[in-house]
């Protein structure tokens, strides 16, 4: 599977532009009224050997959060954010809900050559981007900070840089929808002050709405989001 893009410059800057759908696909665009509609259209899109990133972004932006759609997947942990698998896309992508308790955040991480789309379903999320270090021992340089509110979306891949994601609220929880294509099971986590890396194994707190046995065990390393 390969990924086609209509706007390379905007992708590298982390801002997939609004898809000029009429120009490329005609006027017959799918209507996304529910999470089930989104999953259906994602499976159709990923059935092809070539996936257009901007159309994928259009699908993610078109879905408007409805708690009734995703509440069965939303499982929180008291001590850290959770990653809850929603759909595997026939092995071509992972779609998941991340549930962030008050003040929960991820480590600074890469995306293992995967494309990452994120959409806020509840509350607000802050994304902090960092440049790749040029040598170990240097402090990571912050290159951008964005507050994402309900139904906002963002995109990142390794060509853009590294990032961390957090719920900066001390009183409200947050939930975000993430799509990774292709899926991956390991990523690099970076120390902000020294750029030293460690390998983090991607794990799920629940799958398809069912909490996994032992999912609440302590995790020794900070994980990717």
Protein architecture, described:
The chain has 225 residues and is α+β, with helices and mostly antiparallel strands. The protein has 5 helices and 15 strands. The strands form 4 sheets. A 7-stranded mixed beta sheet has the order 9-6-11-4-3-14-15, covered by helices on one side. The chain has a 3-stranded antiparallel beta sheet with strand order 5-12-13, with no helix packed on it. The chain has a 3-stranded antiparallel beta sheet with strand order 8-7-10, with no helix packed on it. The two termini are 23 Å apart.
Structural class assignment: alpha+beta
Coarse shape: globular
Helix content: 10-25%
Order of helices and strands: EHHHEHHEEEEEEEEEEEEE
Q: Please tell me the overall pLDDT.
A: 87
Question: How would you summarize this macromolecular structure in one to three sentences?
Answer:
The chain is of the alpha+beta class and 225 residues long.
What secondary-structure arrangement, pairings included, does this model have?
Blueprint: E1 2-4, H1 8-12, H2 21-25, H3 35-45, E2 50-52, H4 53-62, H5 67-70, E3 82-87, E4 94-100, E5 108-109, E6 115-122, E7 125-130, E8 142-148, E9 153-156, E10 162-166, E11 174-181, E12 186-190, E13 197-201, E14 206-207, E15 210-211
Parallel strand pairs: 1-2, 3-14
Antiparallel strand pairs: 3-4, 4-11, 5-12, 6-9, 6-11, 7-8, 7-10, 12-13, 14-15
């Amino acid at each position: 599977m390969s990924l086609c893009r209509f706007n390379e410059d905007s992708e590298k800057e982390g801002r997939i532009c609004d898809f000029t759908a009429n120009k490329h696909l005609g006027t017959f665009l799918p209507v996304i009224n529910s999470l089930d509609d989104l999953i259906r259209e994602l499976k159709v899109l990923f059935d092809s050997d070539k996936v257009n990133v901007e159309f994928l972004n259009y699908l993610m932006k078109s879905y408007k959060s409805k708690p009734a759609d995703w509440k069965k997947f939303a499982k929180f942990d008291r001590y850290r954010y959770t990653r809850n698998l929603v759909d595997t896309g026939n092995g071509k992508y992972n779609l998941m809900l991340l549930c962030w308790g008050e003040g929960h955040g991820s480590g600074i991480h890469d995306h293992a050559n995967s494309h990452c789309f994120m959409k806020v379903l509840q509350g607000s999320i802050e994304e902090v981007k960092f440049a790749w270090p040029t040598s170990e021992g240097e402090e990571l340089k912050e290159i951008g900070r964005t507050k994402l509110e309900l139904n906002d979306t963002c995109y990142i891949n390794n060509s853009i840089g590294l990032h961390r994601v957090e719920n900066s609220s001390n009183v409200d929880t947050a939930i975000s929808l993430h799509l990774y294509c292709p899926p991956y099971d390991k990523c690099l986590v970076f120390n902000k002050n020294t750029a030293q890396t460690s390998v983090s194994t991607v794990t799920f707190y629940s799958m398809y709405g069912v909490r996994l046995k032992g999912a609440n065990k302590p995790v020794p390393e900070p994980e990717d989001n």
